[in-house]
Amino acid sequence: MPHFLSAEDFSPRLVYALFRLAGELRARQEPPKLLSGRSVALLFGEPSTRTRLSFSLAAMRLGAEVLTLDERLTSRAKGETLADTLEVLALLGVDVAVVRTSEDVIRPPALSPSVVSAGSGTGEHPTQALLDAWTLYEAFGRLEGLRLLVLGDLRHSRVFGSHARLLPRLGVRITAAAPRAWLGREEDLPGVAERVALEDVSLEDLLASADAVLVLRPQWERHAHSAGSSASPTPVSYLERYGLTEARARALRPESRILHPGPVTWGVEIDPSLREDPRILVRRQVENGLYVRMAVLVAAGGNLGPCEGDRVAGEGNADAEALGGDLPSYAESPVREEGNRAFTSPLHR
Question: What are the Cα distances from residue 68, in Å, to 43, 64, 117, 181?
Fold first, then answer.
């Protein structure tokens, strides 16, 4: 079974197959038990509300046996490596491990369950990128040609790490803007079209030219471990200097959309007066997270195929590609096109 550790493990064809499956699962009042007889372990070494609960509910609704591990109560607290813990899970017969860790990269051992990243340090958060891509697709009916402004703490954000690896391959043009101290290195994520320091540009102009803005939470808890953190903004000054205030939100077009991966610290990155603004999709992101993670768990459990046609080759994780078969690409066949059956949903088998 495959690992899903990075946004690069999802080809465009696989992404759209997961979108379609997520939509079908959402439409069903009682989802089928596609993971009946399988076990899913949740191993979280950092705090989480949305990701942890949505993965747990996703596994339960699909009929899996769910094992919830508090890393502080495992041998990880005694110095056991993540790789050794994953090997123990495999030896005990666990099928899928959902992992959140402070380590920037997850490296499963040879003997391991299928591993799904629920966030790795400042590295990546691939299922957040997937659910945000689906939320944008629903809002606009397309991803090709969309202009996304990513605003906030680029240097410490694993969410940005996955968006920058996934969305450009789906046709989204990303402009990334941050306080200079939080820009990070351009060579780390070459898929980003433009990266600018907020001290050098008009944020209002950036907002006016964007179809959507993804606002990122400042990762205050990680700044103490970063060199040069003394130059960073403070929570008191952040909203006025760099955040999405009510005045700045007026620069966005009525049809533009605002996303945030959560948790939102209202009054820091977004003005509380915007909480009920119809352009904000934060609640929809939470809802979509459940169904996207259900679809990813189905894929991790080996139940996404079979598919018609030849296997896709050459892009992303080879094991993940093998699940996709000859799936419709984002350019050739949108998810909403009911007549295209290149992807055989497990719900119709």
Answer: 7, 12, 15, 37
